[in-house]
Amino acid sequence: MSGPECCSNPPILSPTAGNGTVEKVGGLHCYLTASPHSNLAVLMLSDVFGYEAPLLRKLADKVAAAGYYVVVPDLLEGDPFKPDDSLYTLLVWLKDHGPVEKGADGSKPVIEALKSKGFSAIAGVGFCWGAKVVVELAKSRLIQTAVLLHPSFVSVDDFKAVDTPIAILGAESDKYSPPELVKEFEEILAAKPGVWSFVKIHPGVEHGWAVRYNTEDAEAVKAAEEAHKDLLDWLAKHLK
User: Fold this and answer.
1) pLDDT tens digit string along 86-104?
2) Which of 139, 165, 195, 210 is the most buried (most CB within 10 A)?
3) Please, how many CA atoms are within 13 Å of residue 158, restricted to the half-sphere of its CB?
4) How far is CA 62 from CA 33, 65, 89, 202, 240, in A?
């Protein structure tokens, strides 16, 4: 389920990246960036490289500027995957950083804290590892809508259990959620009456393109921005 592609183009982590602040929410350090007076929260969940990735925080700032209170929790608790580690080491790392045990369970206190602050609706947005976390939260109806970008670790059975409005943005080249598998997800969701869904395979891109792109490559930037627009369009329609 995971390998070199999952970890390609690793970010150079920076604890000071972004326009927001780092504060504790639900017992976890979180990157917070927000529009003033917003009562709509977006829980943005990272890939295996964690919440200090500069492009992830840049996107969080962009989402906040569209009118949301964005929370990027450190679900990995200061122990992201190190990009120079081997595939074997990644598999070992995943044993202690499972997206269900570490991710979904770790997210619940953050969601409860947001609810206690009076946020009227919460969206989950997840990338790679974080997309599996978001699916688990959607299955438990802990969030009001979900967006998955280049998801990993997700299965057909996951989507059979989802009845929350959900968008899936996949890559044309992706070993972990290849287009043919994403199409299966789409068929399952389309067969659910009353469940809003949107599925799109972005052409000419690889797994990780939305938050691990080369900022010097104009085409890569354009492709990432298209995914960001799809994300914002979905939130505008379904996070209310």
Assistant:
1) 666 888 899 999 999 999 9
2) 210
3) 23
4) 9, 5, 33, 20, 18
Of the candidates 197, 204, 232, 234, the residue with the CA atom closest to the CA atom of residue 219: 204
- What is d(CA 210, CA 225) in angstroms, rounded to the nearest whole number? 8
The answer to whether the CB of 57 falls within 8 A of the CB of 20 is yes
In the sheet where 145-149 sits, what is the strand order? 21-25, 28-34, 69-73, 40-45, 121-127, 145-149, 166-173, 197-206
- Rounded-to-integer distance, Cα 230 and Cα 25, Å: 28
Distance CA 56, CA 176 (A): 20
Residue 92 burial (CB count, 10 A) = 12
Q: What are phi and psi of 234, to 5 degrees?
A: -65, -45
Count of positions (residues) in the chain = 240
User: Which pairing describes strands 21-25 and 28-34: parallel, antiparallel, or unpaired?
Assistant: antiparallel
**pLDDT (tens digit per residue) in 139-179:** 999 999 999 999 999 999 999 999 999 999 999 999 989 99
Give which of 105, 103, 106 is closest to 28, Cα–Cα: 106
**Alpha-carbon gap, residue 183 to 136, rounded angstroms:** 20
Burial class of residue 11 in the structure, from the number of CB atoms within 10 Å of its CB (0-12 exposed, 13-18 middle, 19+ buried): buried
Q: In the chain, what is the greatest distance between 2 CA atoms, to the nearest angstrom?
A: 46
CA terminus-to-terminus distance, the chain: 34
The encoded tokens of residue 220 equal 């890569």
Whole-prediction pTM value?
0.96
